[in-house]
Amino acid sequence: MEGILRGRVHKYGDNVDTDSIIPGRFLKEMDPKKLAEHTMEGIDPNFVTKVKPGDFVVAGKNFGCGSSREHAPIALRYSGIKAVLAKSFARIFYRNAIDGGHLIPIEIDEKIYEKLSDDDEIEVDVLKGVIRNLTKVEVYNMRPIPELVMEIIKAGGIFMFKRR
Amino acid sequence: MGMTITEKILARASEKRIVSPGDVVFANVDKVMMHDVGGPGVWTVFQELKPIIGEVNKIWDPDRVWLAEDHFVPPIDRQSSENIKILEDFAKKYGIRKHFRYGIGQYGICHTLSYEEALVLPGEVYVGTDSHTNTTGVVGAFAAGLGHTDIAYVLVHGKTWFRVPETLLFRVDGELPSYSTAKDLSLAIIRDIGTDGANYKAMQFSGSAIKAMDIDERATLTNMSTEAGAKNAIIEPDERLLQYLRSRTDSPLKPVYGDENAEFSEIYEINAMTIEPLVAKPYSPGNVSSARELSDVEVDRVYIGSCTGGKLTDLRMAASVLKGRRVKVRTEIVPATQRIYMQALREGLIEIFLQSGALVGAPTCGLCFGGHMGVLRKGEVCISTTNRNFPGRMGDRESRTYLASPLTAAATAVTGKITDPRDLSG
Ligand code: SF4
To answer: How many domains does chain A have?
Structure first.
């Protein structure tokens, strides 16, 4: 796992559902790169043209609600996203992101959500739990990642994780 | 302090005497389900993991795993046909015998099969590759949806981790008025607590109104819990459930019940008498109005089907409205499983549907997730007995889906406008 991530913010609102992240008709698609061509198509058809490797999705509450499709974190991952910062996550998306080793779900408070603007350049120090807004020259704290979850993230996914 | 039924099941499964909400446990899993989207996804995970864990030559317990073909069946194109083949290869390679295949006897939507075929029993820990796996909590099991990597892990190790959820108790007493259904009750609950109102939590349903419901209606409640963000939904077993299961399996039943002094993080008291026919407007299951308030809304399409609204009880409700009437707009009715289809035929429901002018399709998830069976075009308006109405869920992003009970959907089919079933004349 890379401890420090750096990229630009793509900001969305509450309840971004998995149908918005990757529409159901692509669920039979098994090639992750092809899936990635449709990332966020349901909510932002321009997403794939503007996203760069290392960028972040910032969202409101209940990100990833809806179906259990692991296609959602996979599509985000293969479009270059390394972490999603949201006020809260739907539980299956959260698990999929972590256990599949696809991306890091980071919980942030309302205040931080308000401060992060579309296109801000930010740096996220996952281990220290710190977010630096390089555009606005501000520093915020993320909500701590639970211990077990952190261990699975560090291992790179549930299969690599060795239970003590 | 006592434990809820959810806590008791997770305690047993993780070989602990006591668990409390917030604890993270590694639990032994009793049953696993994969469907034709999930199975190929898990297969892909196994291929990708080869460099790390090697070839997976056997799984932990093939007799605890079952497969359902439901989403893209009959296959809609070559890719979905390939996926069905992958599922077959999967079954063969790992010796999975319980495989419900379209065109060979009983098959249909996984969640309905799970209890109709008594594949999951009271007190078990059950996981599946689908977010509505919650549905199966109707048998008093801990049932939760997982992603492909998580299911792959369970297939290899027979375990997974859970954060023990807080339980929200919904105590529903009194009698539901006629023309009000479990679907209306679900929509009322989601309206009141929000689409993330039960996020990470267990929803438990109890009370005299629940006891009075048949198993299909109860399954609507557990099914719709996913739309409130619940981790799992559960109803404690009663004699009606146990009899239902006994008529379907010889396996011994070992029901689990919560302690008298169990602690709930919240208790909601609901008077069933207050529930009226409701509709969720686009684009959220929480965007709820009464059907009467929407009586000006014209629809192009009616869909009666899915794990939420294509069960036998749902078809009976739809038939009670459509009997002797004609549909005014395109109406598709899709039984959730082959067994339901057969029973509907015996009871004369299929004939009522066909006489009304509706189309009856083979069991499948079909239009519920916009996969096939009449995908909505731009601007098209549909009233549906399914569970989700997000943008693009049933087709074009600019189509509009209203969620309702089978009674309201059928009444709407007759008039072409959203219709409270109480207001249907003649
Ligand atoms: S019927 Fe709809 S909600 Fe149910 S399993 Fe199929 S796609 Fe999912």
So the answer is: 1
B368 in ligand 1 pocket by Cβ < 6 Å? yes
- In chain B, count H helices and then E strands: 14, 18
| Contact at CB, B388 and A66, closer than 8 angstroms | yes
Task: Give the pLDDT confidence score for residue B426 in this predicted structure.
Answer: 67
Pick the atom of ligand 1 nearest to B388's CA: 3
ipTM over cut 0.85? yes
What would the pLDDT profile of B147-194 be if each residue is shown by its tens digit?
999 999 999 999 999 999 999 999 999 999 999 999 999 999 999 999
Q: Is B387 in the pocket of ligand 1 (CB under 6 A)?
A: yes
Instruction: Select from B23, B163, B193, B196 the residue whose CB has the most chain A CBs within 10 Å, as the one to mutate to test that interface.
Output: B196
**The domain spanning residue A88 has which CATH number?**
3.20.19.10
Q: Smallest CA–CA separation between A20 and chain B, in Å?
A: 7
Chain pair A-B, CB pairs under 8 angstroms = 123
Say which CATH architecture domain B280-423 belongs to.
2-Layer Sandwich (3.30)
The segment(s) of chain B belonging to CATH 3.30.499.10 are 5-270, 280-423
Is B343 at the interface with chain A, CB within 8 A?
A: no
Other residues' Cβ atoms within 10 Å of the Cβ of residue A152: 21
Q: Is residue B277 a contact partner of residue B421, using CB atoms and an 8 Å limit?
A: yes
pLDDT in tens, A58-77: 999 999 998 878 899 999 99
CATH architecture of B5-270: 2-Layer Sandwich (3.30)
237-256 in chain B: CB under 8 A from chain A: none
pLDDT of residue B18 exceeding 90, the answer is yes
pLDDT, residue B425, reads 79
For B403, the token pair is: 């969620």
Taking a C-beta distance cutoff of 8 angstroms, is the pair B414, B327 a contact?
yes
In tens, the pLDDT along A18-41 reads: 989 998 888 777 788 999 999 999
Q: How far apart are CA B61 and CA B96, in angstroms?
A: 9
Beta bridge partners of residue B100, listed in sequence order: B68
Question: Which atom of ligand 1 is nearest the CA belonging to B336?
Answer: 1
pLDDT given for residue A68 in this prediction = 76
- Partner residue facing B150 (CB), from A65, A88, A99: A99
Residue of B392, B228, B179 whose CA lies nearest to A20: B392
Those of residues 388-407 in B touching chain A at CB distance below 8 A are: 388, 390-393, 397
Query: What's the gap in Å between B366 CA and the centre of ligand 1?
Result: 8
Which structural domain range is residue A74 located in? 4-163
Residue B223 to residue B123: CA distance in whole angstroms = 18
Residue contact A62–B195, C-beta within 8 A: yes
Residue B303 CB–ligand 1 contact under 6 Å? no
Please report which helix (H) or strand (E) contains residue B381, including its range: strand B381-384
Q: Kindly report the average pLDDT of chain B as a whole number.
A: 97
Sequence-ordered strand ranges (E) for A53-129:
56-59, 83-86, 104-107, 121-125
Are residues B196 and A65, on separate chains, in Cβ contact within 8 Å? yes
